[in-house]
Amino acid sequence: MLKDKLSSPKGILLLFLAGWWILNVIQAAFTGLADDEAYYWLFAGTPAWGYYDHPPMTALLVAMGDFLGGALGIRFFFTLLQPVSIYLLWTLVRPASPTAKDVLLFCLICFSLPIAQLYGFIAVPDSPLMLSVIFFIWCYDRFCREDTWKNMCLLGISMALMAYSKYHGALVVIFVLLSNPRILLRPKLYLSGLVTLLLFLPHLVWQYRHEWVSFRYHLVGRNGFFDPNDVLEFWMNIILVFNPLFVVFYVRGWGKGEYAGRHVRKALYFIAAGFMIFFTLSSLRGYVQPQWVIPVSYSFVMILFGWCRESPKAEKFVIRASWVTVALVALVRIEVIFNPLGLKFEIFGNEGKYAAISDLAHGRPVIFNGNYSVAAKYIYYTGGEAFCQPKMDYRTSQWQYIPNDRNFTGREVIAEVPVEYADSLTPKIILPDGNTFFYAVVPDYHSVREMRVDILNQVPEMASPGNVLGFDLKIHNPYMYDVVISPDTYPLEVVWGRNKERFSEYVADFGTHTVPAGSSLTLHVSFTVPEKFQFEPTHKSLSGNLDYRVAFAIKNRGSMGWFASEEKTVRFVK
What we know:
By secondary structure, the chain is of the alpha+beta class. The protein has helices at residues 2-7, 9-30, 35-44, 57-64, 70-93, 100-111, 114-118, 126-145, 149-165, 169-179, 187-209, 213-221, 228-241, 247-252, 262-282, 296-310, 312-338, 350-361, 372-382; strands at 366-369, 386-389, 413-416, 428-430, 436-442, 452-455, 462-463, 468-476, 483-485, 492-497, 504-507, 513-515, 520-528, 547-554, 568-572. It has a 5-stranded mixed beta sheet, with helices on one face. Strands 7-15-14-10-11 form a 5-stranded mixed beta sheet, with no helix packed on it.
């Protein structure tokens, strides 16, 4: 009886999924943490309804696995997501009377997508997004067949799960609705949206209280400049992560065959086309990460599976190509765990690298400059105290809501010195991975990160070389100690730059001024626009104009810093 069940199509699928899950659990336990995983582990230590970069689903899953400890604890619940996702996909694309051969073909196709292999065990937001996307399509299919109150609620819940996983789940909803405009005539569809809104309301409240920081970051903060290499790299990455051996068959199988239900089929086609078009256009303004289009995986599995069932030649090639891919992936998995090639990558050598910095710190806190994940990894691997000072040339992060640096007040700390600030006299150590860690010993540390600068007067919309710009400033000090603003203590800088490029920083030398503890200071600062900035733009904007972001920063001497004031836009006219 049991043997018959296991040899049935459903039994074969469940055996495959169980085996895949076990493989991913082993991989999760013995693979070093990627940078972002340590960062999300840090999220989990401070439960909240939102975080700077992402909604809270990733942090929740990491926190749930904390009882297991180590890398497996961080990743455990992520390993459970993919088997459920694949099972739901199968229920949507399977033929009316599936055979064991159909199941094996379907499983082999899923297993041969490199992007599916990676996101089967690492702890990143794309994994819960994948489950919530296919759950949404499953609920959408039920709702299209019968718009009952139950199906309406399920549809609303599935959209909320996507929203709590990753923001661009909204694109999935948009493209699915575009695939079936007539569904907009159903009143219960809008009630499902109300369910989503009610469930997502706590996160929206968090965003409101934090000035919509995540939305501003994703909609504006990622903007860069047009570079044809970004477009080319995007498409090369897409071909790679979805298996270059299958590209011809994705094209050949597009729109052919009656696989899956009509609504599901159209929805998956619209998701594939919509994501490709949307992120190709996004690549015109900066780099696009390949995992952002991961929902397209379901569309390509459907297309490939359906086409292979109709074309024996395609099926024969896909099976052979899949086994080649599986063999290559197996080698990669072994390398990821044991690193026999001695590669230098973020998942390798973490214990030794951070132990070396910990030995140097000898119990003192460490302030890292710019790299949010390095500080998180240091805490994870050493248990030491650390903080990440945000970097204007890169971006800020969740660290702006983690007040670790306040705990360092008056203590001796080790502060990383950015390589661009280092010279031959800067102390340094060579880390086991070959990188150099420049540092300074700060005997009596006082943070100025939370100080704020209000620009009281109107900043001109245009400026030319030689123009003298006057700024009336109000500097706020939230700390319990006085802060002395001067070029030799805590310099006030006028910052000129453009998003995704190196910023030019000019110390405002206007003497020495003390901002009292818990108080503010109003003063006037003049700045002469130079003929050339320290760092000239490397990219021209599509409009051809040089629009700079101008702001003020208050910094610990020799360190990176973040904007203390609102950023103004000034057009530079020569």
